[in-house]
Specification:
By secondary structure, the chain is of the alpha/beta class. The protein has helices spanning about 45-60, 75-90, 120-130, 170-180, 205-230, 245, 260-270; strands at about 5-10, 10-20, 35-40, 65-70, 95-100, 105, 110, 140-145, 145-155, 160-170, 235-240, 255. It is built from seven helices and twelve strands. α1 packs across α2 and α3 packs across α7 (about 260-270). It is globular and about 60 Å long.
């Protein structure tokens, strides 16, 4: 059975196509094709059309309509966009699974005070990471529109999602300074890369903004990692669109992953 995995975030719709569902949990990206569409970008209409054509071609190559698994944090607008794409590509033939946050999944327990209040992207990402690294304590960092730090603790009985932190994403931090101050320049995420190579104190406003926002992000990550590492071994997994900007400024061991939400959707599709 082929599967189409869709992660609808605040900034982009990301997708991955599995011609067959790989059962090996050691495979970091168990899909064969993937892509993304930026919401509201000038090229969005072209990307929507290209995506529909790609899905049709992939379905034709496998001679079957895929099972579709979707995690959506973009509200009704995100759901409507995905439904329109799927209808254009497959009519009403594709079976859809809109994933929701639950109190537990397999041996992973949701430790949120109100489990259903946990964002579905964080929950599904935790499912994917736990399947890939069973029995390990994990710090999952997703550097997207928001930067989220999520903790999974392992025990002999299974694992527990122990909550985490939510920060404004790197781009949001940079943008807030530019919008809400009279004389500070607008920067983007790529401007922060050079900030990792400089001295502790920047000698110009451009680099001071870049280094300051980067330090706020990486400081939260480092502090959380040190607290977890004091209890025992912990693996830090970094994903999201700004992951490369953060990776160069982190001193602890990290592992990069393209999209933990898609990995979690794959795990859920495979299990069923």
């Amino acid at each position: 059975m082929s599967a189409l995995l869709i992660d609808i975030g605040n900034t982009r719709l990301k997708w991955a196509w599995c011609a067959t569902l790989e059962a090996d949990p050691s495979v970091a990206q168990p899909w064969h094709f993937d892509g993304a569409i930026a919401h509201g970008a000038p090229q969005e209409a072209a990307e929507l059309g290209q995506t529909v054509e790609a899905w049709r071609a992939l379905a034709a190559a496998g001679a079957q309509v895929p099972e579709v698994w979707i995690a959506n944090v973009a509200g009704d607008a995100g759901a409507e966009r995905a439904n329109a794409l799927l209808k254009q590509a497959f009519g009403g033939a594709a079976p859809l699974e809109w994933v929701r946050t639950t109190a537990a999944y397999g041996d992973l327990v949701n430790g949120y005070r109100e489990p259903t209040q946990l964002g579905v992207d964080r929950w599904v990402g935790a499912i994917g990471a736990h399947r890939r690294y069973p029995g390990e304590t994990l710090l999952l960092v997703t550097a997207g529109t928001a930067t989220t730090l999520d903790i999974i603790t392992a025990s002999a009985d299974g694992a527990r999602f122990d909550g985490g932190l939510i920060l404004p994403g790197l781009a949001l931090m940079l943008g807030a300074l530019a919008r809400n101050t009279a004389q500070l320049p607008a920067l983007d995420v790529t401007d922060t890369v050079a900030a990792t190579r400089g001295a502790l104190g920047a000698d110009n406003t451009h680099d001071a903004i870049a280094a300051g926002c980067l330090a706020a992000q990486t400081g939260a990550i480092a502090q959380t990692w040190r607290a977890l590492a004091a209890r025992g071994p912990v693996r830090c997994v970094l994903s999201g669109g700004a992951r490369h900007a953060l990776a160069g400024a982190l001193a602890m061991p990290i592992e990069l992953h393209d999209n933990l939400v898609l990995l979690g959707l794959h795990a859920m599709a495979l299990r069923r």
